[in-house]
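Lab notebook, bench 4. We co-purified these components, and the gel suggests they stay together. Before we commit to crystallization screens, I want a quick structural picture of the whole thing.
Request: model the full complex, all chains together.
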Amino acid sequence: MATTAMVEEKVVYQRPESLESIPTHYCPGCTHGVAHRLVAEVLDELGVRERTIGVSPVGCSVFAYKYFNTDGAEAAHGRAPAMATGIKRIMPDRVVFTYQGDGDLAAIGIAEIVHAATRGENFTTIFINNAIYGMTGGQMAPTTLPGQRTTSSPVGRDVELTGFPIRMAELLSGAPGAAYVVRRSLHNVKEINRAKRAIKTAFEVQLAGLGFSMVELLSACPTGWKVTPPEAMDWIEQQMVPYYPLGDYKIADGVEQLAKRR
Amino acid sequence: MHEEIIFAGFGGQGVLFAGQLLAYCALAEEKHVTWIPSYGPEMRGGTANCTVVVSDEAIGSPVSQHPSIAVVFNNPSLEKYEEPVKPGGLLVVNESLTVAPPTRTDIEIVRLPATALASELGDTRMTNMILFGALLARRPLVQVATVEEILIEKLGARKAHLQEANLRALARGLELGVAQHA
Amino acid sequence: MAVELMKGNVALAEAAIRAGVEAYFGYPITPQTELLEHMAKRMPELGRAFVQAESEVAAINMVYGAACTGARAMTSSSSPGISLMQEGFSYIAGSEVPCVVVDIMRGGPGLGNIQPSQSDYFQVTRSAGHGDYHAIVLAPASVQEAIDLMVEAFDLADEYRHLVFVVADGLIGQMMEPAELPAMKPIRRPRGDWALTGADGREKNIITSLELNAPDLEELNNRLQAKLAHIREHEQRSTEMLTGDARLIVVGYGTSGRIAETAVKQARREGMKVGLFRPISLWPFPEKRLSALADQVGAFLVVEMNAGQMLDDVRLAAGGQVPVTFYGRTGGMVPMPEEIYDEIVTQYNKLTTSAV
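Here is the predicted assembly.
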């Protein structure tokens, strides 16, 4: 028998405390689960789970409040930023975030997000851009790419008739009250790690009271796109990234120092 | 005592203030009172009016179809409010800005060139105080001393320099109101 | 506290402040804007939350958020804005968070005008949003009553964790009248155990109106209905005048009730046995008292500043026992005491002739 040295076990991967231990309703290959986990890891790392209040949207992530192990509210479609405004104004020392999809944030709720950013509301928005309405069965979203087939653009999005997809990070970067607005993607490990760092910075921006922060995440919807999960990852990289360039769109004074301090 | 008074004129003539002044005085004398303005876009430079009800008893309706008193600052208001005044009521008319004299014979009428008089006293904006004085001369709804006190209070420190002129305008109105009665 | 001459809108705002409102969110609209303006000045002075929202839709959802933290929160608007807020009302009712909404009604439909009206009666008592619920609705007839009901509205909202409306019209909003404000109440602490404050040392709290499982949603509805049944039983409010021997009772709320008072008194001076019944809670409608009155009178005359909305409730309460007639003005027109008096004479004469 070979010598058995006692090797100290080190936990390298576990469920974050900020995430509930229950199965989600998300489809195979959907990146909502990845995004949830990144947010939960960041809340754990910052030690703020016990003082965090999340606001869920209407859309696929309507049940996000069930999956995060934090206090949570379920907003009306598009109104999460308004609700978060009400919460944060009463409890400025709590960590407040909205988690919103593209239909919720960029269509029905565009007024709420633009004005929350403009007012510099000190909360964080996690924006899932998957170029489609997932929950209602794959209709055209404000972020659907030109030519992309959906159930409500069956021959492909015709920009002559429907206009062009909206670039929210670029739009909100123009809001004076926005402190941190970036776009990341979830299509591979490297990008996922970059996304997590951005999410952490966004919450740190809130903790420092610098103003509105948003991380837009390019996400996969294999079911809505009618492709396999690996194909969906490729599609993000090849189709979405060129239209929605990854990068930092607004880094207000004071944000760089936060990153350095870390 | 139960009087329903309409003050009516152009925006900027101090019509609403005249009504408020009466309301504040009535409150100071522990009478029941309501004040309702016309409100909205018509206030911005157009016509303005307000209805004040002063009573010894709790007030039901704060609106009035047939006021017992109308104080009209201009011609459109005369045209509009001469007819509804209750028989036996009082009509106070700013002669300076009206065309033809009122024709009713079943009401008491006081006519005085309030705007011209206010101008003589130094500022046409005191038209309202002259008409207010004439009103009080005929219908002592509140004590003159109360009006003087409240007027000074409402003008405040910022408009303290207007106190004396306003009090003189009030006195002039009272004097002419009494004179016409005689 | 001293009696002061106060404008209805300002009195409502200051009464809410005295009642301990921690957050106000609103959007300007005539004829309630003075309320928002008073809040804009006072709330920051007191270190409380004030946001002029980008729309009524956003305003009510900000209220929803603030109310989720257990804070006393409110908004105010006028008819077209109230229509926009319906979404939020429904979510608030469905997730059972307390809040107060002021509606200073104006003439409709559509943009209508800015003159006084009572045409939101159906909207606030029947369908203040989709789904199956009623909001509590209180209707003051004077500036003093507006103050008193504003304070009571917050207490009712907290007691039942429910949506409470204070509805008046442009006339009460714009009117100045002597009234007395209550003393400043302390801001309520601690927050309810249901509130979203962060899951520190306790299980997480969730506030949602979503329940995909039909049996569970039915159970939620049953619970909501039981609460509403309790409110209906215990929170009916009304006032009356000269009803003891009345053969005809005029029924009116808010401004129309108040104007009718003058007409009723005049009718009494003319020897007619006429009384006034003024509902103060529009939901729950004071049906118990009105039903009792139906046993003793010959007829009801409903007066409203609309085409006949509360009329339905009076008919239901009268239960077909006596005739219920209606006199109303619409479009921002305010009925004058003389008009109501004339209608009283007409209806009273019918009673005396039919009695022969």
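Residues 238-354 of chain C form a domain with the Rossmann fold fold (CATH 3.40.50.920). Worth comparing against the SEC data before the next meeting. The interface with chain A takes residues 22-23, 25, 49, 51, 53-55, 57-59, 61-69, 71, 73, 87-88, 91, 95, 196-201, 204-210 of chain C (CB under 8 Å).
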